[in-house]
What does this fold into?
Amino acid sequence: MMKIRQLAPLLAITLLAACAPKAKPSAAAALDCGQPFEAQVAKITAQPGLKPAPEETGEPYRAYSTADGAASYFVTKPGAPAHPAILMQEAAGGQMRNTGCAWGDKAAYQELMTYLTGLSAGRK
It folds into this structure.
């Protein structure tokens, strides 16, 4: 059995590790509307810890959220009026910020942005 003196260094290391600064969550991948849709989808979905939301029947997009919940992405599905498009919602300072990129029909994209903004307003 270990003696108390033998446990002291192990206890000191454990306490130091507990006091070490916590790693900040990685920043969500920013959108670059100058890049192709497929490249943006690949960049978004390659993020570590990204969580896909359950697929909703009838919704024109696929949703993903970062592990810390600070950002969500909405990627349009083929056949959706706004496709191809990606919308991003970021939560910071108690506010929700909506951004996105439209490679397809701009009017349909604006309608989708309005719809998603309304959904986020209903969550407050």
